[in-house]
Amino acid sequence: MALKERIVITGVGLTAPNGNNLKEFRHALLNNISGVVKHETRHMGEVLAGVCDFDEMKYQKRKERRRGTRAGSISIYCGNEALADAGISLENCDADHPLRKEIGIYIGITEHGNVETENEVWNVGQFDNDVKFWSHHHNPRTVANNPAGELSLNTGIIGPHMTVGAACAAGNYALITAAQNLMLGDVKIALAGGVSESIHTFGIFASFNSQGALAKLSEEQPDPTKASRPFDKDRSGIVCSEGGCIYVLETLSHAQERGAKIYGELVGYGVNTDSTDFVLPNSDRQAQCMRMALDKADLTPADIDIVNAHATGTPLGDEQEAKAIHTVFGDFPNVRINATKGFIGHCMGAAGALELAGNLPAFEDNLIHPSMNFNEFDDKCKFAGLVSGEAEKRESINTIANMSSGMLGINTVLIVKKYEN
Amino acid sequence: MNQDQIREEVKDIISTIAPDEDLSVMTNSGIIREEVDLDSMDFLDIIMELRKRHKIEVPETDYKFFATLDGCAEYLEPKMTQIKA
Q1: Cβ distance A15 to A75 under 8 Å?
Q2: Nearest CA among A331, A344, A324 for reference residue A384
Q3: Which of A161, A346, A347, A381 is catalytic?
Q4: ipTM of the modeled complex
Q5: How many CB pairs (< 8 A) connect A and B?
Q6: Which of A36, A110, A299, B66 has CB atoms 3.0–4.6 Å from A348's, for a disulfide?
Q7: pLDDT at position A1, please?
Q8: Interface test mutation site (partner A, options B13, B38, B45, B50, max chain A beta carbons within 10 A)
Q9: How far apart are CA A336 and CA A326, in angstroms?
Q10: How many other β-carbons are positioned within 10 Å of the β-carbon of residue A376?
Q11: Which of A240, A229, A255 is nearest to A197 (CA)?
Q12: Which is nearest to A83 in space by CA: A181, A156, A10, A170?
């Protein structure tokens, strides 16, 4: 049941807490460089977070940044980087140029608007809660399509734009949505991925804290870079992070027509829903989602070289995902598993897209990046094939399965293959 | 504040709203939105900033007085006489 069209990745733009382009990000993942730091946030004081340091002014004017949102700014940076990487320039295209109509924007978000709403509530609090001081910018900043719309405003792209709300599976889901729109022929080029500005809202930290799911430091473990510990027996919870990753996707024929460089081919995907709990994942449904993606790609588990796990570093979440991985891939010793959140924390809506990018260069360098901060499994969270400590060199790497799940039970899996004509 | 100081204050507010603009091109009698790139949302930012900085309320019917720096100064002078520059 192969996809109706061959969909390929021809450009990557990203900002992660440990790198502002694919080369820097890959270097950090191969060399155990973390992006997690101590971060001050309103009402909570010092928390742990992955913080990005990309140049907001590279593609934006100060007025545009002032009016918009951090998520919009991340979209603008990543989207422009992706277009440049793909060799697509809109510079000499007038406002109605066909190219501007042929591009669609699909941006995954876990949430959007919390940052801006908290800021306004705080702002009117400085004026005795007089709502006359509530900004007229609040609505355009908080509409759900904001991060995609800001990228459209910045670039002059006039094809469709949308955000995809799918909790922490949103980055993957936006790529799936983009691929579907490409296969329908609605657009010729898609800018697709995910963004997150969540570290700028105290509410995200406070809610995870109340849930008992926020990673913390202790006297025994005072190092922020060791706080996010996917699958490790000492994992204590999530490190929230910001970030973004946007790809240029297009049909193979379109990419070939313009002589584009091809990073990889999206050959399958799966999406399903647990329908069991607000926050806890369901390993049976996650396993079903993996098999759904394999079926769509006409592959078996033995064909997969790297499985990138969602692995947020929470005790119960990792346990469920470990079961799913063991169920699907446990009988296939060639399969290797890695997790990215030990390096960068949980980039929420950007997580799936960013984590795929972290593994994408493996098609060229045949290296599997390790899972940072993993020392030992516990009895309930165990499977074979996890890469940790150092990167693992393979003779060849041809297939990556990228998993992302999110609250309210949304699961996604992408399967990307090394491009072969 | 006198009218000169009010003009400077309005220009200072505009500089925070439109930080990329060259405000040296502004004249006292020129139409502000023709001299610098401001749209209706930016204009509302000017009104909001006057409210925040100086507790000045400008009803919508009086927005017309804000077309030029001179218009701003004349309109705001009675409201800002007691405010120190």
Answers
A1: no
A2: A331
A3: A346
A4: 0.94
A5: 23
A6: A110
A7: 65
A8: B45
A9: 12
A10: 10
A11: A240
A12: A10
